[in-house]
Write a structure and sequence with these properties.
It holds the Pfam family CvfB_2nd. Belongs to the CvfB family. It is a single chain. By secondary structure, the protein is of the alpha+beta class. Helix content is about 15%, strand content about 35%. The protein has 4 domains: about 55 residues, OB fold (Dihydrolipoamide Acetyltransferase, E2P) (Beta Barrel); about 60 residues, Beta Barrel (OB fold (Dihydrolipoamide Acetyltransferase, E2P)), CATH 2.40.50; about 70 residues, OB fold (Dihydrolipoamide Acetyltransferase, E2P); about 70 residues, Arc Repressor Mutant, subunit A (Orthogonal Bundle), CATH 1.10.10. The strands form 4 sheets. A 5-stranded mixed beta barrel has the order 1-2-3-5-4. It has a 5-stranded antiparallel sheet with strand order 8-7-6-9-10, with no helix packed on it. The chain has a 5-stranded mixed β-barrel with strand order 11-12-13-15-14. β14 and β15 form a beta hairpin.
Length: about 280
């Protein structure tokens, strides 16, 4: 059987060379560099090796165990991003593997960044090229567990694995599949990014809806601080009040009118601001 990249194969040590070993089977052989050897080996030994292409495109072997293969998914870390090529990930061997850029939906701003993690497997292309592919929905369903209603309103951490126009798909650390609607976040998370939010719905199929927005009391404090700092930067006044149009509030502060009114109400209750003719002003001592 011909040896091919992307899998772990059992091979025999055929002979030693000056800088390594030739290993293989009755039909094929590949090079195993001494830097890729774990422990002591000798001619005639049977080894489990991972096969991949070196930087010159030659099929080569390593005794290092990869994090993923063409048969097995796993979490791998992003080590380099090239807008023209794609994303390179560390699979645990001497060569990083490319995820082609066309595997990522959306614009470049939601691509993974260095340090993010993706759930992937390897694929050998028709051109005998080894690439990595992110898991799809069906792949993640095999990993997922169903959430119960007891998880409602609980905080969770998760990885984003896919983005669409209306929101982001996630896998939580508990292995719940979930979705973050665009209305439940202040900014769009990127693919591979770790996010923390709270479960706002547990659906009948065990998937969850998650919000990245703070709870109302937390959000009111944060939003009130944002309004106060904005007014500070304008000398203690702003051309907004609880009568301002929702679209104007959204454009300026990235918050709903309801959140704006709660934050403004908090500042007024604390005696920090007052409203007059559509403006809001600092109260001076």
């Amino acid at each position: 059987m011909m040896l091919q990249a992307g899998v772990i194969e059992q091979v025999e040590v055929l002979r030693e060379t000056e800088i390594g070993y030739m290993v293989g089977n009755e039909q094929d052989e590949v090079f195993l560099h001494k830097n890729e050897v774990a422990g002591e080996i000798a001619e005639g030994d049977e080894l489990d090796v991972f096969l991949y292409h070196d930087h010159k495109g030659r099929l080569t072997a390593t005794m290092k165990t990869p994090l993923i293969t063409t048969e097995d998914f796993g979490w791998v870390e992003v080590v380099k991003v090239s807008q023209g090529l794609g994303v390179f990930v560390d699979i645990g061997v001497s060569k990083d593997i490319l995820i082609p850029g066309d595997e990522f939906s959306g614009f470049f701003g939601v691509w993974p960044q260095e340090g993010d993690e993706l759930y992937c497997r390897l694929k050998l292309t028709g051109r005998d090229r080894l690439i990595a592919l992110p898991a799809q929905d069906e792949d993640l369903k095999e990993l997922a567990v169903a959430a119960t209603q007891s998880m409602f309103n609980k905080s969770v951490s998760a990885r984003v694995y896919r983005v669409i126009r209306t929101g982001s798909f996630i896998l939580t650390d508990e292995h719940f599949l979930g979705f973050i609607h665009q209305s439940e976040r202040k900014q769009e998370p990127r693919i591979g990014e770790r996010v923390t939010g709270r479960i706002i719905a547990v659906k009948d199929d065990g998937t969850v809806n998650v919000s990245l927005l703070p709870r109302k009391q937390e959000g009111m404090d944060e939003d009130a601080q944002a309004l106060y700092e904005y007014m500070e930067g304008r000398g203690g006044a702003m051309p907004f009040s609880d009568q301002s149009a929702p679209e104007d509030i959204k454009e300026r502060f990235q918050m709903s009118k309801g959140a704006f009114k709660r934050a403004l109400g908090k500042l007024m209750k604390e005696g920090k601001v007052y409203q007059e003719e559509g403006w809001t002003y600092f109260k001076r001592d």
